């Protein structure tokens, strides 16, 4: 919850809440059009259009709901004939009524609005980490929402792997239902599972063959036997907005010795990280353990500035955004805290050969962690 100390100087947010995670986190109000959140001392307010006023009163966590019309928005718009200018005038009027002369804003606050508020006598102070720490430590309710997303995630993964398992090889290419099995087909199947359960996803990854060596290549074209298939899926709730994240790497057929060796190394590195994560250790320390192990196995790492091998961090926070604080990598210099949800996703990548990544999602506890990912890890299916 926001405290008096948190809101001094006052905090101002402006945006829609489908994509602005801070706005949804503070208000609990899901709206496609921009609205205003302000916190002064221990009081929170939102300022919405007249169209959203009644819904905001019923749905927002913030109890003080105001309409733009209370501060003359439409009248101002008729005069200035520019919605941004009219909104700046309206905001300035509201801030003046609250005797607010200085506001802190997040790093993604609209530059134009910041300049217009300054021109109206408001001191606008950018603050890069307004809610980062608070959002990183999940409440029991937030953890339940992430668990629900992960349950759907595992249903989608099972659907995809079931199709791969049933596929048949012809001249090295996999076929399913009489047609070539493609990345695009599997992506659609995964996303259909999400949609049917009230979830959605962006940029579902089903990358196969040598191009799976690019960690964020979404995948395209026919899938072949005996080659790695990296499936990285991260749905979010269409209503509650919380994400889950999971990756599995599989082969239909016989993996090459290189891929088998990489898989075994990645699985061992993940186990090392899972055993290390607890409150008090830093994300960087966990990442260093993974890098140490890979380097001893003869693989390059991001630490050695290698262009192949382990070329990303071990993990990241998950919540209202798919990538959020804390980092389980070089940037993770602060101790992990109980209640933080992080991924553990070491990977190895060799251009011309392919990639292997295995990803679980855990809740940090005082003496270890709880793995929210129940899906099995098996290379050959």
From TrEMBL:
It holds the Pfam family Creatinase_N. InterPro entries: Creatin/AminoP/Spt16_N, Creatinase/aminopeptidase-like, Creatinase_N, Pept_M24, Peptidase_M24B, Peptidase_M24B_aminopep-P_CS. SUPFAM superfamilies: Creatinase/aminopeptidase, Creatinase/prolidase N-terminal domain. GO terms for molecular function: aminopeptidase activity; metal ion binding. Its EC number is 3.4.11.9. Residues 144-366 form the Peptidase M24 domain. It comes from the Archaea. Keywords: Aminopeptidase, Hydrolase, Metal-binding, Protease. Residues 19-137 form the Creatinase N-terminal domain. Signal peptide: none annotated. PANTHER family: AMINOPEPTIDASE, XAA-PRO AMINOPEPTIDASE P-RELATED. Belongs to the peptidase M24B family. This is Xaa-Pro aminopeptidase. It comes from Methanocella conradii (strain DSM 24694 / JCM 17849 / CGMCC 1.5162 / HZ254).
């Amino acid at each position: 919850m926001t405290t008096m100390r948190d809101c001094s100087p006052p905090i101002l947010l402006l945006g829609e809440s489908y994509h602005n995670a801070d706005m949804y986190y503070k208000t609990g109000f899901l709206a496609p059009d921009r609205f205003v959140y302000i916190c002064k001392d221990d009081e929170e307010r939102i300022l919405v259009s007249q169209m959203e006023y009644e819904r905001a009163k019923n749905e927002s966590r913030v109890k003080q709901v105001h309409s733009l019309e209370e501060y003359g928005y439409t009248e101002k718009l008729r005069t200035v004939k520019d919605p941004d200018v009219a909104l700046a005038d309206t905001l300035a009027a509201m801030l003046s009524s609250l005797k607010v002369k200085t506001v802190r804003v997040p790093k993604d606050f609209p530059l134009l609005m910041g300049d217009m508020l300054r021109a109206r006598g408001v001191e606008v102070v950018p603050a890069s980490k307004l809610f980062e720490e608070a959002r990183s430590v999940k409440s029991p309710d937030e953890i339940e929402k992430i668990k629900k997303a992960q349950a759907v995630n595992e249903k989608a993964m099972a659907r995809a792997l079931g199709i791969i398992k049933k596929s048949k090889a012809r001249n090295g290419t996999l076929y399913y239902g009489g047609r070539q099995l493609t990345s695009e087909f599997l992506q659609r199947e995964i996303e259909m599972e999400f949609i049917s359960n009230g979830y959605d996803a962006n940029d579902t990854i089903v990358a196969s063959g040598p191009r799976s060596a690019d960690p964020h290549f979404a995948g395209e074209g026919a899938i072949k036997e005996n080659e790695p298939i990296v499936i990285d899926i991260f749905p979010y709730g269409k209503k509650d907005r919380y994400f889950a994240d999971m990756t599995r790497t599989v082969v239909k057929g016989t993996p090459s010795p290189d891929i088998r060796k990489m898989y075994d190394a990645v699985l061992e590195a993940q186990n090392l990280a899972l055993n290390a994560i607890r409150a008090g250790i830093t994300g960087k320390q966990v990442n260093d353990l993974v890098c140490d192990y890979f380097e001893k196995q003869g693989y390059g790492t991001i630490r050695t500035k290698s262009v192949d091998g382990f070329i990303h961090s071990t993990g990241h926070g998950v919540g209202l955004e798919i990538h959020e604080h804390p980092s389980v990598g070089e940037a993770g210099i602060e101790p992990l805290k109980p209640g933080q949800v992080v991924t553990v996703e070491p990977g190895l990548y060799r251009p011309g050969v392919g990639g292997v990544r295995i990803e679980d999602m855990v809740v940090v506890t005082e003496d270890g962690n709880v793995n929210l990912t129940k899906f099995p890890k098996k290379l050959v299916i």
